[in-house]
Design a protein that fits this description.
The protein has one domain. The protein has helices at about 25-35, 40-50, 65-80. It is mostly helical and about 80 residues long.
């Protein structure tokens, strides 16, 4: 998929982005629910990982979850 072309197909397109950048647990859960049914979830997550997005919910993962995923991937690459 072309660079950022995936955004046109994102389930969150046109929604209030504040819910994806909230500290409120209910809003974070709402954002993750939108991501759960998104057809481009993986592309969104990969974009967030590649561009080192620190804030918000991207590809269904919050900041802490993405940090953990990066560590797991890094540990796996070092072990290989």
């Amino acid at each position: 998929m072309a660079r950022l072309e995936w955004k046109e197909q994102a389930a969150c397109r046109g929604l209030d982005t504040n819910v994806f950048f909230s500290d409120d647990e209910a809003e974070v859960a709402q954002a993750k629910a939108v991501c759960a049914g998104c057809p481009v979830r993986e592309a969104c997550l990969q974009f967030a990982l590649d561009s080192r997005q620190h804030d918000g919910v991207w590809g269904g993962l919050d900041e802490l979850e993405r940090r953990r995923l990066r560590r797991r991937r890094q540990s796996g690459a070092e072990a290989a």
